[in-house]
Amino acid sequence: MRRGQPRKRRIPVRKRLLVRLLSVSALIAVCSVAATAWLAVTTTTSALREEQGQDLAADMKILARLSGYAATHPSWKGVDGTVRALAVKTGRRIALTTADRVLIADSAPHGTALPLGAAATVDPLHTDTYSEPGAQLSGVDPRAVGPYRLTTGERERMDALADKMRQCYASQGVEVTVRRAPGGRPVLSDSDGSPRSAYLPEECGYYMLITPTATEKKAVDALAEGTRTCLLRNGHDFGRPEFVSPDPAKPNRYVVAGFDKLGKTKSARQAQPCADSALRAQLDPYVAPAAELFLGIGDRPAPRFDMSPANKAKIVGAAGLVLAVTVAVTAVVAVRLVRPLRALTAAAQQPPELHVRVPVTTRDETGILAEAFNDLTERRERLEAQRKAMVSDIAHELRSPLTNIRGWLEVTRDGVVAPDPALLSSLHEEAVVLQRIIDDLQDLAAADAGTLRLHREPVRSDDLLDQVAAAHRVAADAAGVTLRTEPWAEGDGKPWLDADPVRMRQALGNLVSNALRHTPADGTVTLAARRDGDRVVFTVADTGTGIAPDDLPHVFDRFWRAEKSRSRRTGGSGLGLAIVRHLVAAHGGTAEAGSEPGAGAVFTLRLPGVPPPDDQ
Hints:
Helix Hairpins, 4 domains
């Protein structure tokens, strides 16, 4: 890295402003997507479950209604009106067919194809959708009563008996209601609808209400005979008459009774299938044959998705939460980003003479900007100090010759000193010094403004050295210093420059003059030039006192002197080396100084070389 260039700091990736902004944007996007996905899944799942539940409930109602029709009718004749009414009520397409797909009834127009598969089988002898909604069981629909239906006279007698028992229960402080079973028999129930069987006041005669009527007894006897025939056919003979009774746990189910007392529970379990089979055979003439139920969407419009108030509240809440998180995160990041910028703005608005600096609290782009601002403030402070020192030095340099000229002119005017040739020569020397200072300042001003004019032409390096040595030979002899040039190496060739010969002689001459001033008598000043790749290197070395290491970085500064007490006659104006650096920089080269205390100093100029002209 070259001297004077700022060191570039590498910002960690996680500290870069762009990465932080992208991270915040990604966080907001992830939160938004996650919230949206969660809401979509929640609301869609709830809507689907609700719709599926409604469709399933409607399907079960259709199956229960048709099963009840089949249980109370010996055939499907006349079911068309029921099918169409159910289709209008539920919005579903309903079709009934036999097992071999012969159409019985259909709510759709004639010729409409059936759905691919049947939704259920309507068979009241092998289902129980009346007492167990939503399930197809192996029992018998309680509405299929057949020969067990009471006659009108039996129903009236049983109703009168039930009303009498209700009044008897009421007198005992027990509230009961009377409901009617599918077969026409009245049943006493509690207020919640459960059968009244836990409390049986003897005086009320409840047993009279559960005694089978003649119609029921005839049907039960026929069921028992059918059961016995089945048992004998399957090789079961219990050696005594069988009898059946209603199952109190399941409606429309009869069990073969009397085996528990005989210790034949296993035999009773074996006999139960025969009782069920005999019951189905007994009821079969009174119910419609089994049919296949087909369900379709129908011609109703598709259900429109309407969000419930709860789902709307979820969406509003999630959106508000995402917005709050976004605002909070953005506010935190914005505050952290804006705080150092505000500090920079406040520091920049301070008066320039204060040279305010800002604290560096971060390692991102803002921190680098704060460091750059502090560096700029430091350079400005240093330049301001140099400007003040330069003004003071210029005033000092100009005041000395002007004071001498004014003093000698005043004493001459007063007649104290005669204007002899020696006085005039002294005044002329002071004027030359003043002119030289002004010329140097003018050259520096032109170099700073970029208006320093160069008249370039091909120049041979050895010619420059010889011309500079010849120009300073008299001064070197007067100081007792040997001034010499080093010979060229064999085969190295003569390096050429594309340069302004006058400005190059001025630069080399300033170096030689500086070396002569700092080299004691019997010392040596050596001029040399050599090729270094595509560059030409000039060196001016002396055997003087050298330059201290702390002073080397300042030798090319304006008005700088190694010894502050040295006068301008022995130390120069302090502008020569500054002019050298600007002249060399104008030619695209560099100027360097090296020294060891007590071993002299070496000044090196590196300039771009060019090939020799064609005529050389």
